Amino acid sequence: MAEHDPTKPRPGTSRRDFLRGSGLAAATAVLTAPAVAALDEAKAAAVEDGPKVLSGELPITLQVNGHEMSCKVEPRSTLLDTLRHRLDVTGPKRVCDRGSCGACTVIVDGDTVYSCTTLAVSCQGHEIRTLESFDTGATGVPHAFHQHDALMCGYCTPGFVTACKAMLEKNPNPTIEEAKRGLDGNICRCGTYVGVLEAAMAAAKAMKKEA
Amino acid sequence: MPSWPEKPRLIGKSIPRIDGLAKASGKIKYPSDMRPEGTLFGVMLYSPHPHAKVTSIDTAAAEKMPGVKGVVVIAKAGATLRYHGDDIAGVAAETEEQARDAVRAIKVDYEILPHVVTEEDAVKPDAPKIVPSGNARKGRAQTTGDPEAAFKEADAVVEAEYSAPVITHVCLEPHGLTARWDRDDAITAWASTQAVGATAGELAGRFSIPVTNVTVLTEVMGGGFGSKFGADVWGLTAAELSKKAGGRPVKMFLDRIQEHLAGGNRPSAAGKVKIAGKKDGTVTAVVATTSGTGGARGGSNFPFPYVYAIKNVSREHTEIFVNGGGARAMRAPGHPQGCLIMEAAMDDLADKLGIDPLEMRLKNLNDGDKVVDANGKPTISRAGIYREQVPIGAKLIGWENRKPRGQNGKGPIKRGYGMALHQWGGGGTAVNKVTCTISPDGSVELKTATQDIGTGARTILAIIAAEILGLEVKDVISNIGNSTFPPGQGSGGSTTSPSMAPPAFNAVSKARDEFLARVGKAINEEPADLTLQDGKLDVKGKAVMSWKDACRKLGMMGVSVTEGFAEGLASGGVAGCQFADVTVDIETGVVKLNKIVAVQDSGLILDMLTWRSQVYGGVIGGLNYGLFEERVMDPGSGLMLNPDMELYKLAGLSDIPEIVVHAHDTPEMRARGVIGVGEPPTISTAAAIGNAVTNAVGVRVNKFPMSPMNVLNALNAASNKEGKA
Amino acid sequence: MQAFEYAGPSTIEEAVKSLTGSKSGVALSGGTDLISRMKDYVTSPDRVVYLKGVKPLAGITETKGGLSIGAGTRLVDVIANKDIAKEFPALQQATLEVGTPQIRNMATVGGNLLQRPRCWYYRSGLGLLGMKDGKSLVRTGDNRYHSIFMTDGDALFTSPSSLATPLIALGATATLVGEKGERTIPVEALYQVPKTSDDRELTILPGEILTKVTIPEPKGKNASYEARQKQAHDWPLVLCSVSLDMNGNEVNNGRVIIYGVAPIPWRSEAAEAAIKGKAITMETAAAAADAAVKAAKPLSANGYKVGLTKTVVKRALLAAAGNRYWEEA
Amino acid sequence: MADPDNDLPPSELPIAHEAPCRHLRHKGMYVYTDGISGESHQDYDNTIYWCLTTMKSFGPDDDMVDGPGCRNPGRTCYEAI
Fold first, then answer.
1. Do A180 and B612 touch (CB under 8 A)?
2. What's the structural domain count of chain D?
3. Residue B674 scores a pLDDT above 60
4. Quick check: B549 pLDDT over 70?
5. DSSP letter at C276?
């Protein structure tokens, strides 16, 4: 939404000492003041007439797969890293880490999201589901993936299974085209797409039988 | 000599992989999921420059950062950094966020050196040298026959240039491992690797500890494609950081950017080709000057000419070095490149001769090329295999609908067909061992230090055991991915199945024989009268007790047998052909795949389901190469511009056409024993697509990938030429 | 990603206050662009103000024959809206193709309009203009995805918003709220061409947030057409949205906006002039497409985009007129 | 398995029959287990080599790691098996 960056100087030359991902501050090794402050204990300063401003290590509680899970995170910790590094929920995988590949897909309040571009702190009070909570029985999506060999190395699979589950919850009767489009937010490198599509259609059928 | 059962109950059937549900439910732990007690997070600092010398490096500030438990410098003062992404240092901290902050607090001074990142720039006379001996290493021209004379007598000669860019492996699980010092001479590592043994060996070598004290664990792993052999710089750095931190585990996995920059790539390939033939379709001569870059590393060579028997040949390859991440073996190293250049030239010549490129291919097969049978004897004609496969593929794609180049109608939407042939070696090796243990409680375990990179290695071992013991696949525990187990094959070169199936067969067969001997003694029956089927023990063909009850007759001691390779069960050397049906919109240059057909032999297929998955996967890897993938380097800054999964393009589900996989599963092929299938089906897909696009649009699109840019540029170049003529 | 402070306001007033109270604060909504930029250290704010808790920002309402779309409305909700599907197919078609299901579940209208350029020089940390030692790396580098118009300047990236293209064609306005109150401007006025590395391509002021866009009552016909390399998850190479105010069979006034060809959403007045007073036929659409690219000055590696732009403009016009000839083969 | 040396520049042929340095590594050693031949197929060699001491494609002497170079006992970092 309103995404602005009001500091002077503007981004451009001022920021280009940080080459992408190199993690390197070429010009200076000193962290910015807020970064240092954030490393102190948790702070919550009240802005006049505004919401609380949070920084440092914050205790948060997330609703994951029907359980309340608590841990400490910084505001910058993504939902994905919080699940994987702090809560031992390692089903969602970190692959591109930039919201392109879908391996980190989780369901928040019924909708799939990329957990690598979601901040954990913003997920408090929302219902988070990962594939570890899915039914593994004969009418479940994981079963269909298994039977149709919709996985090889399996590292993209959690994302596909999650995207498929959420798609079928919203559209229990997808056409082949709808199923393809519904799973277009996920990338597989081994090349399991044929099995994935078969599994999605089979899972839709199996879910109907159950209903 | 041992042989596979003639009428197998399980072998060759479609059997879901035994770890499939654990993977599909998110419950199995990958190496990158492991977070043993006390784990620290490791982050690498890597070069932001394509070419530089480190003049000084100061880690004092980083070491004082909150949570930091160790810093290791790899590129000390004086070290040369040769590419964007080259390793400089590693940090371990309590949280990953802290480690990332600390890496940014390492102060490095560089002497920036001039760089060169494109093949074109690298060979300019004033180009900065990446390798002391120069950026171009010209190979010796290899000539057979008399190409020049053949050109003079030819009915048609085609001269053209073809090229494909560098692509990267993009393993979904990044390279890396979690290392923990268990005591001062022992390490446990959870590694995402294709070779647990190699990784253990490198860790042991670096720290001078006995390799038997290093345990590398890879229960499952998220893809390798040839790029994950060994511990790597970052793996050794993790172990060193763990040592600094008093043995606490250090988890070090690359981020996606460094994965692209440093985790390996397939070298580029370019070829200037002159090819000549006779009206009857005989290819009489080919002369090629080829080149490619594997970055700051060799490895760009590739087989050429490819597949066909051509009498008069001259070929010269030049390795080019640039400031780019080094190549690593990538699924069928060299073959996709050789294939796409050769097969483009074949099609262009057929077009000029006015003959069907399918017929021309069959006419020029190499009848002297023999592949081995299960006894290791070269008795089987590869040309013969092609002659069986090509008509099958042609029928499945509808080759009869193909029109000659440029005759695809007046509208902007053009349909085209293309094909290509490929081959691969592979085969098994004799040094591996499998232990089969049958326990008194009825459990059966196979143990070996190989790993499953997603091909289904774990499952085929269980199938073999279940077949021989008359059990179901689920009754067998396939215990792999541990370097301390009996030696197992590294997963590469399509060698895993042919290397591991024979020792599994032998170990289980001998375990069964010993089992029957002991059980026979316990129940006073002749072992020769005993057989195992349907989970039961039979005496003279009649079931007398369940498998479990029979196992109880072992008393307190189970049966455990370790066995190795034997001739007669595996071989190597395959053919294969692929066909593509495409639609190209010549007003946008957008290529849509309608259908791809893959016909593939691979000896005795152990599990049809996972075998088919590998062929689908190979085709999809090939279609990515044909349509989407490209590492883009910026000449000015020397940086890779697309180290992501967005502008580094990979197919999604909507990009996948109908794919028809035909297993060339004949009695003759089955008799050859087990052959791997990891690489062959990825070789010819891009070549077939390139030929189909060219057939559709009427002009050769000579640069891969078949992007709108490359398609439109080829069309524009052709119409400009026409305009001038 | 550098550490930052975090605020989660629930009203627009609180959101503005949270932003103005910081030095370099940024607003976060879907996060599909901003979080990645922060991870790449391209944008490193001292405060992040999370807007998804500001409920008044989301939702689609009717206004005097037109529609008001809250900046916090998710793309998936734009696609599902029946009024948009019926009256503003140009907007629905462009939105349908943005990103992936997950992105459309997360991303918002405001975020799409105010995302930063996808230029791979900018994303590599080389600055918005991709300059090194006073020279443009883009001009001599790999500019296959860059501009073909306005290329005399140093801003060679292309404007990244798929939604801006149809919204401008449809004559939509944007409402911004800041410390000093509210202002409403045409959507095209959200964008400017940066002249130096210190300039930005967005006109939104520090402390302001975009609250809604308003589309006036539809007239005539509208449509979008885009070309992209991949079918799944890809950026358009070129996208064109047209809105045609019709007088019977003839175009009274038409708007032709093109994405992927300039550092701002490119309005092709030449194409608009070419169709004025004419019926949309294969011939007039082709003539307008020719006119659209007449002033193009492609860079070293993106000449292919000129012909591609011609095709996309032609097809957008014909799509509005109900002719989808390229689907007939 | 053919000898990859067939593909070497003639100038480098004389040293080709020395034993490789003990730090030389390539994938083929872990897959084919036949020593030094690597991914050679008939008359070409596209083997990817690395050095165990640097774990990279350049050795401690800052020169390239490869089949011929790392069989040269004259190289400063060469160590016999």
1. no
2. 1
3. yes
4. yes
5. T
For the domain spanning C55-115+159-215, the CATH number is 3.30.465.10
Domain segments of chain A as ranges: 58-132, 134-210
ipTM of the complex: 0.96
Q: Is residue A28 predicted with pLDDT exceeding 60?
A: no
Give SS3 for B117: coil
The segments of chain C whose pLDDT lies below 50 read: none
Those chains having 3 or more beta-carbon pairs within 8 angstroms of chain A are B, C
**Pairing label, strands B80-81, B52-58:** antiparallel
pLDDT of residue A42: 47
Domain boundaries, chain B: 20-28+428-563, 34-124, 175-253, 265-426+571-724
- What is the structure's pLDDT at D11? 37
Q: What is the DSSP string of C76-121?
A: HHHHH-HHHHHH-HHHHHHHHTSS-HHHHHH-BHHHHHHPPP--HH
Instruction: Name which of C18, C33, C48 is nearest A75 (Cβ-Cβ).
Output: C48
**Position B93 pLDDT exceeds 70:** yes
For residue A211, the model assigns a pLDDT of 65
Asked whether the beta carbons of residue A78 and residue C35 sit closer than 8 angstroms, the reply is: yes
- Contact status, residue B241 vs residue B99, Cβ threshold 8 Å: no
Distance from CA of B327 to the nearest CA of A (A): 18
Distance (Å, rounded) from C-alpha C137 to C-alpha C299? Answer: 12
Determine the pLDDT at residue D19: 85
Residue of A nearest to B175 (CA): A95
Nearest to C5 among A5, A55, A118 (CB): A55
Domain boundaries, chain C: 1-54, 55-115+159-215, 221-327
SS (H, E, C) chain A: CCCCCCCCCCCCHHHCCCCCCCCCCCCCCCCCHHHHHHHCCCEEEECCCCCEEEECCEEEEEEECCEEEEEEECCCCEHHHHHHHHCCCCCCCCCCCCCCCCCCEEEECCEEEEHHHCEHHHHCCCEEECHHHCCCCCCCHHHHHHHCCCCCCCCCHHHHHHHHHHHHHHCCCCCHHHHHHHCCCCCCCCCCHHHHHHHHHHHHHHHHHHC
Residue among D33, D41, D64 minimizing CB distance to B425: D41
The residues with which B72 forms a beta bridge, in sequence order, are B90
Residue D38 has pLDDT above 60, yes or no: no
Contacts of A97 in chain C (CB under 8 A): 39
What mean pLDDT do residues B227-241 have? Answer: 97
By percentage, how much of chain B surpasses pLDDT 70?
A: 100
Q: Which fold has domain A58-132?
A: Ubiquitin-like (UB roll) (3.10.20)
Establish if B191 touches chain D: CB-CB under 8 angstroms: no
Task: State the pLDDT at residue A24.
Answer: 42
Q: Check residue A37 and give its pLDDT.
A: 42
pLDDT higher than 70, residue A34: no
Nearest to C142 among B413, B634, B716 (CB): B634
pLDDT confidence bin for B722, thresholds 50/70/90: confident
CATH fold match for the domains C1-54 and C55-115+159-215? no
- Give contacts of B265 with chain D, Cβ < 8 Å: none
Q: A134-210: which CATH topology?
A: DNA polymerase; domain 1 (1.10.150)
